[in-house]
Protein 1
Amino acid sequence: MLAIENAIYPFPWTQGNFRDSLAAGYGCWLYLCDAELIGYAVLMLAADEAHLLNLSIAAGWQRQGHGGLLLERVGEIARTSGARLILLDVRPSNS
């Protein structure tokens, strides 16, 4: 995850960010293609809301629909967990 994160973001999450998210009990899902890690998502579920903290697809796999598929799966997980709303904070520089 760190290799993907460092390759695609100017301000990537650190190993500590991932570790803290897991320690806090946030869900983390890996997206594999032929046993290769090509993406991941981190989701915080709270009451009837879900906060999408990170959803990333490796550079060589982007623009092929993988991000949309992972987002759909995370949405299903959120709904199954009782979330009625999914929130995403985005930096103003992230077009």
Protein 2
Amino acid sequence: MLRNEDVYHRQISDPYERLISCEDYLGNIPRTLQEIADFRGKVAVDLGAGTGRLSRMVAPYARKVIAVDFAQDMLRIAAEKLQQIDPPVDWSVHVSDMRHIPLEDQAADIVMAGWSLCYLASSNDPNWEQNLARVMAETERVLRDGGAVIILETLGTGNEEPVVYDFLQNYFDQLTGKYGFQHKSIRTDYRFDSVQEAAQMAEQFFGESVGRQVLENGSRIVPECTGVWWKTVRKSFVSNH
């Protein structure tokens, strides 16, 4: 799991972009997104978008992509990357907290949140349940009937098998229990140019122990597991007739 103080409170958006450019070299994330939802002609919202990793994956298929994040420096890169897509796509970026999505009711078909909701829903935050409930309510508010919610979170970097960190266990339990999400895990391994780069990036973003592990393994491939949660939102409409 990325260290929050590193990603959002220091100017490291460029090395972060390098990190994610090496992630999931086998392409399991875009393949899984397409299996879960049909993005063709849809309005897709990317919450906690960062540098637009998920936005860029789905933009060529979607009618419009809306990237939302509270880190303006990250969104700067997201905007630059989205602008470079050829042929051009319809997109916008918004600086906002995901607990207050800057969209009207029923304005979206798909809402994604990749490796971001965990910072609000970690049990290290005493208000995690309220935060999660607020994001779930906002997500359902902006989705049209039959819309999809897709959440991706870490299940361990440097691990061959999924690992649930203690401070995320309650959050994950509520996703499948209280909120009715389906769930599966996928591999999203990193492939760097060298063992040295792999160790340096792993230490910078995931801690000294992961960096040492990479050096001991002597491989430029860093294993990683990612959890995917998804559900379809159905709304009840009361007719006046």
Protein 3
Amino acid sequence: MIKFKKESDEVLYVDEKIPVIGTKEIGELKRLALLNQRKRVRVCTHDSPNSKLHEMFIVHTKECYVRPHKHIGKDESISVIEGVVDVVLFNNTGDICEVINLDAVSPVGLRYCRLPSSTYHMFIIRTEFLVFHECTQGPFIRNDTIFPEWAPLDGSFKQEGFIKHIESNIRSHQYGC
């Protein structure tokens, strides 16, 4: 089992010279995600928030709300290892532009997407767990992540209605910018 350094309940760093992530490590990340209030955890395989390349293995439970957001000046790539997720892309006013279904369950499912910088996106998780590998440029600067006013805060009473609205639009294909 790989050693982790804990930065917070949601953020761990690998404490090994050569990081290797396998089934045991993913199982431990799932266990930790279930214990967190926001039902998520990530292990960073890069050295620090100042690293030029950020690689993370992330676990979200189905209950996890990933508030729509965008990253200024940073593309990001997502490779699904386990689970199914709808990656929902929005324009600046909150209209759904596209939904990308990433599916590691189906033998013919898509497993990867790259999101250009400044693209508002969120996840609708379709399975008990979503396990994915994310890459982006560093350094991590909190203010480079923008949350729009039209997206409810994490834990807000409006969050559940917002998610139901998004899911309804996905089911009826009411999108396209």
